[in-house]
Inverse folding.
């Protein structure tokens, strides 16, 4: 699986990254190597949420996607 990651230089030094296809999935690192390690961990964490505990209201829409 390939996922696009947007990497930014942080104003205070280091880097931060976000995954546009996974809302809320972001991380940071003091070095690019640390950021790379952290982004794998962040994506894994974001994709491993327990969807059974999410409350869905009548205004929400449910979609199935292939990854």
């Amino acid at each position: 699986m390939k996922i696009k990651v947007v990497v930014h230089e942080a104003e205070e030094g280091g880097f931060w990254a976000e995954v546009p296809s996974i809302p809320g999935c972001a991380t940071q690192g003091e070095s690019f190597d640390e950021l790379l390690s952290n982004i794998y961990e962040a994506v894994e964490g974001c994709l491993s949420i327990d969807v059974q505990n999410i409350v869905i209201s009548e205004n929400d829409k449910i979609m199935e996607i292939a990854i």
User: Anything to note?
Assistant: The CA atoms of residues 22 and 41 lie 13 Å apart. The helical segments are 32-47. The longest strand covers residues 6-9. DSSP finds one helix and three strands in the chain.
